[in-house]
Structure formats: structure tokens, C-alpha cells
From TrEMBL:
Region feature (LID): 131-141
GO biological process, one term: AMP metabolic process
GO molecular function, one term: ATP binding
Complexes and interactors: Monomer.
Catalytic reaction annotation: dCDP + GTP = dCTP + GDP; dAMP + dATP = 2 dADP; GTP + UDP = UTP + GDP; a ribonucleoside 5'-diphosphate + ATP = a ribonucleoside 5'-triphosphate + ADP
Residues where AMP binds: S39, R44, E65, L66, V67, G94, Y95, P96, R97, Q101, R138, R149
Record keywords: ATP-binding, Cytoplasm, Kinase, Nucleotide-binding, Transferase
Family of the protein in this entry: Belongs to the adenylate kinase family. AK1 subfamily.
Described purpose of this protein according to its UniProt entry: Catalyzes the reversible transfer of the terminal phosphate group between ATP and AMP. Also displays broad nucleoside diphosphate kinase activity. Plays an important role in cellular energy homeostasis and in adenine nucleotide metabolism. Also catalyzes at a very low rate the synthesis of thiamine triphosphate (ThTP) from thiamine diphosphate (ThDP) and ADP.
Name the UniProt record assigns to this protein: Adenylate kinase isoenzyme 1
Compartment(s): Cytoplasm
E.C. number(s) listed in UniProt: 2.7.4.3, 2.7.4.6
Pfam families in alphabetical order: ADK
């Protein structure tokens, strides 16, 4: 039942590919005990399971495109419910990727209290992803797919930030800085929530 998570603290973590979302989420989990749900990780786990759904997803992700909304949202919701009894809050990482995804999330789950906008320059993101690609084994960490993911980010995801800015819940985080300095800014935003 979704009732269990209705009053949970929800934080959307939005930023381009390679901006440092996962890196910051890991640090938030360690300090605040939040549950980190990366939509990409959930999808990659489904691919790794070898299911039919996973095979369809893999083909889409390899092209750098967005997977169907209902699939991602159902996976996030199931994962949230599974952690409802132990979670101090939820970090929703890499979702919403487009405004429609945010609207559906709010209809089916609840409203975010905060949106962390992890902001880095395009060239920084490309550099970090190329480096990550040396060891990540991710099918989408290659030059051609990176370019498509960045284009899609600017087109579909930046409007998400504008959408939530109207509500005053966006905190822009300069992710060009070293990891610990970025986290110092993140901490301030999370502490404001209490
Ligand atoms: N502030 C920072 N300074 C330098 N490198 C960073 C950084 N934040 C993250 N990185 C590195 C770690 C990864 O190898 C790569 C991408 O980070 P990530 O957390 O996996 O990004 P995302 O989850 O947004 O795709 O960049
Ligand atoms: Mg990530």
C-alpha cells in the first residue's frame, strides 16, 4: 500500500548524466540514513535479471533514450514501499527526467519536499562520464551515447527544474567543486528540511 509512504520525506535529485548525483546520494545515505533509489540502478538491475522486460529496457537504454514512464514509476514505488519501515527519507535519483514523470509521481506517490539540482557544465559531465566508462561497464558510458543523453537532459529534464522552481523547493548545487565541498552545500539544503 502506498499509504505507508504518504508522509515520507521525498527528495528529488536532478542533474545531467555524470553531474555527480550518485556520488552525493551515497554521502547523504551515510550521514542521514535516507534510502537511495536511483532509477537507472533499478532499471539496470532489471536488465541484469535477464527478464523479458529487462531485454526491452536494455535496448532502449543503450540508445540513450527514456524508458516508458509506467515502468520506472512502478519500480520506484515498489522499492519505496519495501523500505517504508526503515527509511528516514527517500532520495529519488535520476527521476523525474521530464515534467510528466514528476506529475505522475505526485499522483501515485506524493510530493517532493526538496529538489537538489546537481549542476555541472556539459564539458565537465562528458569528461567525468568518459572516465567513469573506463571501469563502469555501463553500455551507455560511451562517447556517442553520452552525447545523446546530454541532449536529452537539456531538452527534457531542465524544464523539470523550472517546474519545481515555481514551488520554491529547488536548491541549486555547484557540482564543479570537489566532492566534499559539493556535499557541504548539499548538507545545508538537507538540514533546512528538519
Ligand atoms: N564533484 C566531483 N568532482 C569530481 N568528480 C566527481 C564529482 N562528482 C562525481 N564525480 C565523478 C564520479 C564518477 O566517476 C563521475 C560521475 O559521477 P556520478 O555520481 O556517477 O554521476 P551521476 O550519478 O550524476 O551520473 O564523476
Ligand atoms: Mg547515477
Amino acid at each position: 500500500m502506498a499509504d505507508k509512504i504518504k508522509n515520507a520525506k521525498i527528495v528529488f535529485v536532478v542533474g545531467g548524466p555524470g553531474s555527480g548525483k550518485g556520488t552525493q546520494c551515497e554521502k547523504i545515505v551515510a550521514k542521514y540514513g535516507y534510502t537511495h533509489l536511483s532509477s537507472g540502478d533499478l532499471l539496470r538491475a532489471e536488465v541484469a535479471s535477464g527478464s523479458d522486460r529487462g531485454k526491452t529496457l536494455q535496448a532502449i537504454m543503450q540508445k540513450g533514450e527514456l524508458v516508458p514512464l509506467d515502468t520506472v514509476l512502478d519500480m520506484i514505488k515498489d522499492a519505496m514501499i519495501a523500505k517504508a519501515d526503515v527509511s528516514k527519507g527517500y532520495l529519488i535519483d535520476g527521476y523525474p527526467r521530464e515534467v510528466k514523470q514528476g506529475e505522475e509521481f505526485e499522483k501515485k506517490i506524493g510530493a517532493p519536499a526538496l529538489l537538489l539540482y546537481i549542476d555541472a557544465k556539459g564539458e565537465t559531465m562528458v569528461k567525468r562520464l568518459m572516465k567513469r566508462g573506463e571501469t563502469s561497464g555501463r553500455a551507455d558510458d560511451n562517447e556517442e551515447t553520452i552525447k545523446k543523453r546530454l541532449d536529452l537532459y537539456y531538452k527534457a529534464t531542465e524544464p523539470v527544474i523550472a517546474f519545481y522552481e515555481q514551488r520554491g523547493i529547488v536548491r541549486k548545487i555547484n557540482s564543479e567543486l570537489p566532492v566534499d565541498e559539493v556535499f557541504a552545500i548539499v548538507e545545508k539544503a538537507i538540514d533546512e528540511l528538519k
